[in-house]
Amino acid sequence: MYIKNLKSINLPVLLGASIMLSMSMGMRQSLGVFMPDLTKDIGITVSEFTMAIAIQNLSWGFLQPLVGAWAGQFGFRKLMLLGAVIYSLGLMMLATAHHITMVTLGAGFMIGFSLACTGSAMALAVSTKGAPLEIRSTILGLVSSIGSLGAMIAAPIGQSLSQEFGWRFGVYGFIALSLVMLPCAWMAGRVDDIKLKPQAGFDTMKPTVVIKSALMHPPFLVMTIAYFVCGMQLVFLTTHLPTYLAICGMDPMLSAKALGMIGGFNALGSLFFGWAGGRYNKMLLLGGIYILRSLGLAAFFYVSPTPTNTLFFAAFMGFLWLGVAPLVTGAIIETFGLKWQAMLSGLAFMSHQLGSFLGALGGGLIFDHWGSYNFAIEIGVTVGLVAGVSQCISALTWPKTPAKFATA
User: What pLDDT, on the 0 to 100 scale, is given for residue 84?
Assistant: First the structure.
């Protein structure tokens, strides 16, 4: 039966969505490798650069529900293609930047918009449309896994080109990678040809009614609030880890290796949590991820970094990185169905991106003020543990899928 279900998957759609996600997220997660040289070259502070990254995350988050609602009503292909084009243009603006305005427009607003069209919410919505219920969680994990490999490609390319020719050439390398997204978005857009029979319940409701129902559902609210902490921790790492390692006197290539290690183990973690989400309580698994991440942050940042413990830390965090995506998306599908999956995932993702905004900008402000990241780490560990415990309590307190919400 499992093999039969696999044969029903539209392979071009799955490959297109996976590779598009891989390029989109890989480059976005690796922008931090340019920060030390970029800030010195054009004369901006760390907090100014991180403000641009924070704006990227904020615009991505706030646009995601709107893009998801549009896709739910009118289709995915045009949005994904537009996002791929805007991504390349945003990188071009960053590569030619000579002041903070161009950095903010390129790396901030433009890439933020494109991520709403090509990032995890859209790719996962595309990949699960028409997928059999029995393997849906596994498909989510598989796409997240392939999508996480982009950092293994982007970070080393960006770092190597930057060291050899300067940071601008590193960004040009990213522009070349971004062009791969265009044919992939076209392939993934074939999902618009799959017509699903509307189910009773949320599929027949207006988007505003669905959103209101979601916001009145306690497990969705707890999951969304905990997602805030997820974004704060992860974007803090991708943005500030290169600078932290440079301060500690580490080889600049170590940060690229660490980001690549995160991407590699991210693939394994996404596969595992996609598989586990089909068998165990998704909310409880989410709580466990947040707790383990916070303990990992505390363990790494309270000892002196070495190449060995840095790569071990990157592997540990990578395994727990995008595993949240198949769990959050799967929980939303179980509760609210497929039609509005992208919109509701985007609604939860807004909270994630508010956390990302705070992680990128707050880390930069704390570093500029105190000259170290110690206080930022203390905040990240504390709120992460609170979020993880709250998520576990929610999983054990409320039914996973209340009967009145079950439509998938």
Answer: 93
